[in-house]
Design goal:
The complex is a heterodimer of chains A (about 475) and B (about 650). With about 475 residues, chain A is an all-alpha fold. Chain A has one domain. Chain B has 28 helices and four strands. Chain B has a two-stranded antiparallel ribbon. In chain B, strands 3-4 form a two-stranded antiparallel ribbon. In chain B, helix 3 packs antiparallel against helix 4. The chains are: A mainly alpha (about 475), B mainly alpha (about 650). Chains A and B meet through helix 7, helix 9, helix 10 and helix 13 of A and helix 27 and helix 28 of B.
């Protein structure tokens, strides 16, 4: 019974999903708004459950395969928030595109359940289960617009490549199990505390697991799916893929590498370093050549992933804190960026090209400013929060004397600044292609404004979130 | 007292901000009332500080009021050092500023930029006070640059006049040269001592005098001398010492009140003040002191010569300023810092007086500035006449006037000095006395005596200036007469500056002069008997009287005889010509080279755009890897996996 209380939010959510699903089945097609409201309600309920049952201390249950701790609660809360924002931004768009169907929300909630399981997973198998739940929901979501060829193509690629990655991950887990005889992270951690625990099969297992993780993150060279999926999926789905699952990816890496396999730090840190540098480089450079904003943001994601990985490389508590801070702030930025694309889109028209942002300042100065805040924050311009996110990561690297890593991170950041600033340039210094004013629901406008301003507020008071990360991780 | 110090500095700033940013809300009367009250408050508070130090014997204040930033071990602060030197400077600055503020009401009455002008001069007062009250080099530099900026704004105040724009630009550029040296000097001190705080740097001075650095291989310089010379280069530009004096005469394009305030009484003395403030450093560098001595002496004599051939009333006074600044510099060069500061203070009064009187004349003559077209103005403007006479007498050093005490003591100090070039300096200064009297009375006679050389009747009849202009004249005239009497004793031979200025025992020339000092009256008598100064001044005045009132016809004859010299003087020793013909084309060439080759080609072309182009091309190559084919993607994953596995296997 005590175990069940640990998983109360998850249990509540799955019950809620069943209710939403069943309600949606019996609703007429034009009443999907009810499903939408119910989905948001379930999120609120789950958040309440998380707050109510959060114990404040670390408890491990279900025979060592499930963990409830305050860091998990914070990550989950952010995930709820991101999914809620995603639903909010999407409703209008889906309605206009004729895609407003209950499945979107149900799949989104299922994905969230997967994310929660990953965050709380404390054995390799639990983590794998969560990952599969999340991935399957995402495949379906990407293919959501069934009639669109490009959607189907993206979903197909994602599915096949994801299957390879899952297989790789599972294969790596089997190696670990073969050597150590356990899949529980606590027991694994215990095992690696022994000296001379390192062996070739272990390293092979580790490598396969890292490939699986890198695929989830979209780190180079396992990033190929990412641009195609970001571009092919309907923008609300891209928003979903680009935000909450990153939190899961962070949790996965943290639980497996920085927690369970900390004994192998030297080996995985080197691999992550290579992946991080490659991601930063490819992400920053190739984004320059993109004319499609969603694709550009995909490459931008890849370079941000490089930063998140860098936090892990230090292997210190500060590094972990930096990674978490970076992840949380990044998902806020990403949500805002895709929110802006949704805002500019109209019926039958995706505002996904850079050109569509031309002269936005003349059309709507406020949202041009919101986009400016998002772009500046992504580029790492003070006083926006993206600047501090980069600073704490670099600090953690410098504290462990990894100067060349920090140096190359700065180098690629400078290159990356170009394509973010190009968007700003388009908005402020180029004449608009059309003079149409923007139309969007009030709730959407308000949330998007708050989303943008949050970057500024968090940038001025970065201590609040930083201290929160430090407190829950220690 | 901290609040008082802050009040002194901030009240002019506040007034300047209110008037400057108030726009149309500020009427003309409001503009001058607000700024005058600001400066008046500043002046009264500075008197309070002076009383506190002299009468109540308060301790010297040296403290930080605001911590601005810390970079590494370097702390950047805003702080005040209030000792006797500061208190004296602050009082002089605020008093002159107050007089000029009042005078401006009359002088700028018709000007459309009335509010702007008041805002600027208040802002200038703030900057100057920041400069003199600073207790660290950073704030000193701030004040230094701030007065420079306001000076630039005010010279170009009439921004529609081509000449004014040119002059302001020239002043700014010449001062940049000096500022560069000044900044290098500060940097050298920072490098050597690791601090920007006066006290810490001064405490380190003795040790530094033994430290040398290698400038080029084989050339070792004393770091202290290097720093002092660099600092003095800054002072040369700000205090218009040759060859960086060229901006000051041109700066007369600005309105006359600021010529009085900035380009005669206060800002141009910042260099003198700075060297005196740094006396604990300069004392340990014979090299720097010798350089100062030579530069000052040369300036004192040769700038004075130029005053004789000028026809513009303000330019005559301007060259006189350059020459008098040379006197002060000489005093610094022989370690008679207090004599330099004393002359600075008396000069501030009588030179401001002369400028304001000149302004009054210019007003009366309807903005005619050529003294050759004036004459006989004595009858029309008695107050201006008498105050100009007092100013002139003070300037040439008529016994009993303030200028007499400061100049005579200064020359006496040079006389007894054993420094290397003291002989040269002494003769330059003596010659300067004659010349000063000559050009001063030349101007005086041409303006006020003799026959009017232009039509002065009807509408053009000159009128005495309004009361707001004559009252400052009278105040300054009174000070010009009396200020020397009570101050010479304590300032020069007493211990007024004991804790502010540092003089090594074997440099103490004033101490030697002081053994014969027994009160101002005896000082006058003594100097009448033993020094040629008074007689030289008298001779200069007589010469002026002879050639400009008695036998004006002889002037052309002499001009013929010394045609070559006259030519050189009229062309101001060809400084401007040399700059324009030799220096400027080279600088322009270098700048063009750096622009086209360095900036456009290397930095923009190769580094900025070149790297951008490279990255763009790399980018378009790499994006081709994203072929869109699923099997390519899967293949890249497998390759990645294989490489990682291979790497791990090889590592074990």
């Amino acid at each position: 019974m005590a175990d069940l209380i640990l998983a109360a939010p998850e249990i509540f959510l799955i019950c809620a999903i069943c209710v939403v699903l069943l309600t949606d089945v019996f609703l007429p097609a034009d009443k999907t708004i009810v499903t939408y409201s119910l989905a948001l309600l379930s999120l609120v309920g789950t958040a309440a459950m998380t707050a109510y049952f959060s114990v404040g201390e670390t408890v491990i249950g279900f025979g060592g395969s499930f963990i409830a701790d305050s860091a998990g609660s914070v990550l989950k809360t952010f995930a709820y928030l991101m999914v809620a924002i995603c639903f909010l931004y999407s409703r209008d768009y889906l309605e206009r595109a004729g895609l407003l169907r209950g499945e979107f929300f149900v799949l989104g909630l299922f994905g969230l359940l997967g994310i929660m399981v990953i965050i709380s997973g404390h054995s390799l198998l639990t983590l794998y289960l969560g990952l599969e739940l999340l991935s399957l929901s995402l495949y379906a979501l990407v293919a959501f617009n069934r009639d669109s060829g490009i959607c189907a193509e993206a979903a197909m690629k994602y599915f096949v490549l994801g299957a390879i990655a899952s297989g790789t991950l599972l294969y790596g887990i089997s190696f670990l199990y073969g050597v150590t005889g356990t899949v529980e992270l606590q027991a694994l951690g215990q095992y690696f505390r022994e000296p001379d625990a390192l062996s070739l099969p272990l390293l092979l297992g580790l490598t396969f697991i890292i490939v699986g993780i890198a695929f989830k993150f979209g780190a180079v060279p396992f990033h190929m799916w990412l641009p195609d999926v970001y571009q092919g999926a309907p923008t609300p789905v891209t928003l979903y893929v680009g935000s909450a699952p990153k939190i899961a990816a962070f949790a996965l890496t943290w639980r497996v590498l920085a927690d369970g396999l900390l004994g192998l730090h030297e080996s995985w840190a080197d691999m992550l370093a290579v992946l991080a540098i490659l991601s930063l480089g490819i992400g920053s450079i190739v984004a320059i050549a993109q004319s499609n904003l969603k694709r550009m943001l995909a490459y931008s994601t890849i370079s941000h992933v490089g930063f998140i990985l860098m936090g892990f490389i230090a292997g210190t508590e500060d590094g972990l804190r930096a990674s978490m801070f970076y992840t949380l702030t990044y998902v806020i930025m990403a949500a805002g960026a895709f929110g802006m694309i949704i805002l500019l889109s109209r019926r039958g028209f995706e505002a996904e090209n850079l050109e569509d942002f031309k002269g936005l300042n003349a059309r709507n100065p406020w949202f041009a400013f919101v986009m400016l805040m998002i772009m500046f924050s992504m580029a790492g311009v003070p006083p926006f929060v993206g600047f501090y996110a980069k600073v704490v990561v670099l600090e953690s690297l410098l504290a462990t004397d990894m100067f060349w890593l920090a140096g190359s991170a700065v180098f690629f950041t400078v290159i990356g600044a170009f394509y973010y600033l190009r968007v700003v340039w388009y908005m402020y210094f180029v004449d608009p292609l059309n003079e149409e004013s923007l139309e969007a629901a009030t709730d959407f406008r308000v949330v998007l404004s708050v989303n943008g301003l949050a970057l500024l507020v968090l940038g001025i008071f970065p201590g609040v979130l930083l201290n929160l990360c430090a407190r829950v991780l220690s | 007292m901290e609040a008082v110090y802050l009040g002194i500095v901030l009240s002019p700033l506040l007034a300047a901000l209110i008037v400057g940013l108030g726009g149309r809300l500020i009427s003309r009367p409001t503009a001058h009332w607000v700024t005058i009250i600001g400066v008046l408050a500043s002046f009264l508070l500075s008197l309070l500080v002076l009383k506190d130090l002299i009468v109540d014997g308060a301790q010297v204040y040296n403290g930080t009021v605001y911590h601005w930033a810390t970079i590494g071990n370097l702390s950047m602060e805003i702080g005040f050092l209030v000792d006797h030197l500061t208190a004296l400077m602050v009082s002089v600055v605020t008093l002159i500023s107050l007089a000029v503020h009042i005078y401006t009401i009359g002088y700028m009455k018709e000007d459309p930029g009335y509010q702007r002008f008041f805002s600027y001069i208040s802002l200038f007062t703030f900057a100057m006070l920041m400069l003199v009250m600073s207790n660290n080099f950073l704030q000193l530099f701030f004040g230094w640059e701030a007065v420079g900026v306001v000076s630039y704004l005010l010279i170009g105040f009439w921004y529609k006049r081509q000449a004014a724009i040119f002059a302001s630009l020239k002043a700014f550029l010449v001062n940049r040269v000096g500022d560069f040296g000044f900044l290098l000097g500060i940097a050298a001190l920072l490098w050597a001592t690791g601090s920007l705080d006066y006290k810490q740097v001064f405490d380190d001075a003795e040790r530094l005098s033994g430290v040398s650095i290698t400038v080029f291989s084989g050339v070792d310089w004393s770091i202290l001398s290097l720093a002092c010379i660099c600092l003095f280069v800054g002072a040369m530009a700000k205090s218009a010492q040759m060859p960086l004096h060229i901006w000051l005469p041109d700066s007369m394009e600005g309105p006359t009140p600021i010529s009085a305030l900035i380009h005669a009484a206060t800002m141009v003395t910042a260099g003198i003040f700075m060297v005196a403030r740094m006396s604990p450093l300069f004392e340990f560098s014979e090299t720097a002191l010798s350089l100062i001595l030579v530069i000052g002496a040369t300036t004192a004599f040769f700038a004075g010569l130029l005053g004789i051939v000028q026809d513009d009333i303000k330019r005559v006074v301007a060259y006189s300023t350059v020459s008098q600044l040379g006197y002060m510099t000489v005093a610094l060069g022989v370690s008679a810092y207090s004599a330099g500061i004393f002359h600075l203070a008396t000069h501030a009064f009588f030179k401001a007086l002369l400028f304001l009187a000149a302004g009054s004349v210019i007003m009366a003559m309807h903005h005619e500035q050529n003294i050759k077209k004036m004459g006989g103005l004595r009858r029309y403007m008695p107050i201006t006449y008498w105050s100009a006479l007092i100013g002139t007498l003070a300037l040439i050093g008529f016994p009993g006037f303030s200028g007499f005490f400061s100049k005579d003591a200064l020359i006496e100090a040079v006389h007894v000095s054993t420094a290397v070039s003291a002989r040269y300096a002494y003769w330059c200064l003596l010659g300067g006395v004659f010349i000063t009297a000559l050009y001063s009375f030349r101007m005086f006679f041409l303006v006020f005596h003799g026959e009017a050389r232009t039509e002065l009747s009807g509408k053009k009849t000159p009128k005495e200036s309004p009361i707001v202009m004559t009252v400052p004249l009278i105040i300054l005239a009174v000070f010009s007469v009396v200020i020397g009497w009570p101050t010479i004793g304590p300032l020069l031979f007493g211990d007024f500056f004991a804790d502010s200025l540092r003089v090594l025992d074997h440099h103490d020339v004033l101490g030697m002069v002081g053994t014969e000092f027994h009160g101002p009256t005896i000082f006058i008598a003594h100097s009448m008997m033993s020094s040629p100064v008074v007689y030289l001044a008298g001779a200069g005045s007589l010469t002026a009287w002879f050639f400009y009132l008695k036998r004006p016809d002889l002037r052309d004859l002499i001009k013929q005889r010394i045609r070559l010299l006259h030519h050189v003087l009229v062309n101001k020793y060809y400084f401007d010509y040399l700059n324009e013909v030799f220096l400027l084309p080279r600088v322009r060439q270098a700048a063009n080279f750096l622009w086209h080759f360095g900036d456009e080609n290397i930095i923009d072309g190769r580094l900025v755009n070149g790297s951008a182009r490279t990255i763009a091309s790399v980018s378009s190559v790499i994006r081709n890897m994203q072929s869109g084919y699923l099997y390519h993607y899967a293949f890249s994953m497998i390759i990645g996996l294989a490489v990682l596995v291979g790497w791990m296997v090889l590592r074990t």
